Amino acid sequence: MASTDTTAICTPVTLSGRHATLAPLAPEHEAGLQAAVREGELWQLWYTAIPTPEGMAAEIRRRLDLQTKQSMLPFTVFDADQRIVGMTTFMNIDNANRRVEIGSTWYGNSVQRSPLNTECKLLLLTHAFETLACIAVEFRTHRFNTASRRAIERLGAQLDGILRSHMRASNGTLRDTAVYSITATEWPTVKTHLQWQLAKPR
Q1: DSSP symbol at 33
Q2: Cα angle at 115 between 35 and 63, to 5 degrees?
Q3: Which of 28, 66, 81, 139 is the most exposed, having the fewest neighbouring CB atoms within 10 Å of its CB?
Q4: Among the listed residues 2, 202, 19, 10, the one whose alpha carbon sits nearest the alpha carbon of residue 120
Q5: Better-scored residue on pLDDT, 18 or 169
Q6: Residue 111 · residue 79 · CB < 8 Å
Q7: Domain 10-197: what homologous superfamily?
């Protein structure tokens, strides 16, 4: 039964599937996250904000602090072998309107373009719509992050628009933010689509 508790979105939970497990972020995950982010030196990507190995402890603290303020629910992503491969979150939580954003997501190179991301999104969206009674789930990314935009569109999310000069990036440039969403009425069709994507031969 869907929850109507306004604090439920920030309640830590473990979400598990065949290819991935999303576990509540914890400080003891630091070494595994450092190893994952070193795959491909992900922090070098100019159009997104991914922590460096040296900055991982501070990033964990930042996310957990936002969780205590009920504005973020952070997860550590494990693969099928229970190896730490990345991070993701529910963020920009709007309890009153039952809206969340899935974001601050990154994965090590070894699991990119694999079923893991699709299953992570299926687990998060199922929890958001079927347990937390969300009316919409958003995805936001840099206009120039074409890989992220393609991945979001493959999920079945629709482009709501571009927020021009939305925010200043760490390198000082202005970021145009592409905003996508999936609504509760769209969820049954999107869920069928994601399940089909996971089941089809690769």
Answers
A1: H
A2: 45
A3: 81
A4: 19
A5: 18
A6: yes
A7: Gcn5-related N-acetyltransferase (GNAT) (3.40.630.30)
Q: What's the token pair of residue 132?
A: 């937390």
Q: Which residue has the tokens 């997860």?
A: 75
Q: What mean pLDDT, rounded, does the chain reach?
A: 90
Output the pLDDT for position 168.
Answer: 84
Of all residues in the chain, the percent with pLDDT exceeding 70 is 94
Alpha-carbon distance values, 44 to 23, 38, 40, 48 (Å): 26, 10, 9, 9
> How many alpha carbons lie under 13 Å from residue 103 in its C-beta half-sphere?
21
Q: Length of the chain, please?
A: 202
pLDDT band at 169 (very low <50, low <70, confident <90, very high): confident
Whole-number pLDDT of residue 7: 57
Strand partners, 94: 99
Alpha helix ranges (H) inside the chain: 30-38, 56-68, 115-126, 146-155, 187-199
How far CA 168 is from CA of 2, 48, 164, 172, 183, in Å, comes to 37, 11, 11, 6, 28
pLDDT at 109 over 90: no
